[in-house]
Design a protein that fits this description.
The chain has 89 residues and is of the alpha+beta class. The chain has one domain. 26% of the residues lie in helices and 7% in strands. It has two helices and two strands. It has a two-stranded antiparallel ribbon. The two termini are 23 Å apart.
């Protein structure tokens, strides 16, 4: 992806080339203890999981709403179907 970055057109056939401005880290699996970005992703994914399926401890502390604190900074254009912009796979 150094120079070739085809992005599908929304609602039209074909692709368009978008310039990649910055890449934060290498996209490979590694221990999150060695990467602040991966630690952040781990915490966010835990908050999202607990929002959908809170365990008994989270329910007792009323912490299932922690993910909703991200409402002002979420990239909501990532998904057209989810109001928070979350892409479920």
């Amino acid at each position: 992806m150094r120079r070739y970055n085809p992005v599908p057109n929304l609602g039209a056939p074909g692709y368009r080339m978008l310039q990649t401005i910055r890449i934060i880290e290498d996209p490979y699996f590694k221990d999150s203890a060695n990467s602040f970005i991966h630690q952040l992703v781990d915490v966010n994914s835990c908050f999202l999981y607990q929002m959908h399926q809170p365990n008994s401890y989270i329910r007792s502390k009323k912490a299932q709403n922690y993910f909703r604190r991200y409402n002002s900074i979420l990239c909501k254009v990532a998904s057209r179907t989810d109001p928070n912009g979350i892409v479920y796979v």
